[in-house]
Amino acid sequence: MKIDSNDVLSAKLQVIIHWAVRALSIIMVFVIVMGVLDVAWILYQRLITPPQYILTISDMLATFGAFMAVLIAIEIFINITIYLRENVIHVKIVMATALMAIARKVIIIDVEEMEVAYLYGIAAVVLSMSIGYWLIHQLPRKSHLEE
């Protein structure tokens, strides 16, 4: 039996991709740790700035934004580890990560500084991502009911 050279090349390329994804997971852990340190640093700086030990609304929004960025990094890490385990990208998890990212944007947005068109764009993204996420959760139920 003759081995197709394309299969050998594909297998070698798959190994390279697998190691690249492993490297990304290691880098993502570093990003997460640095993000946690950044959240702690931001919180510390906000607490020592007069008035001391009091967080203003803008301080809380900045802290929430930093928290959400770390949570998004954790979600991306989860996507990477699932890909390493199963060699498949799960659309539900990717959509959940995207929803979290757009939620972060909505939480930290300063509506007084934004143009109306930008706000409509954000609203369109939130709506479309929400509908897409809902549909992804509904599809398995409908196919399960049809069986």
TrEMBL record:
<feature type="transmembrane region" description="Helical">
    <location>
        <begin position="21"/>
        <end position="44"/>
    </location>
</feature>
<keyword id="KW-1133">Transmembrane helix</keyword>
<protein>
    <submittedName>
        <fullName>Phosphate-starvation-inducible PsiE family protein</fullName>
    </submittedName>
</protein>
<dbReference type="InterPro" id="IPR020948">
    <property type="entry name" value="P_starv_induced_PsiE-like"/>
</dbReference>
<dbReference type="GO" id="GO:0005886">
    <property type="term" value="C:plasma membrane"/>
</dbReference>
<feature type="transmembrane region" description="Helical">
    <location>
        <begin position="117"/>
        <end position="136"/>
    </location>
</feature>
<feature type="transmembrane region" description="Helical">
    <location>
        <begin position="64"/>
        <end position="84"/>
    </location>
</feature>
<keyword id="KW-1003">Cell membrane</keyword>
<dbReference type="Pfam" id="PF06146">
    <property type="entry name" value="PsiE"/>
</dbReference>
<keyword id="KW-0812">Transmembrane</keyword>
<keyword id="KW-0472">Membrane</keyword>
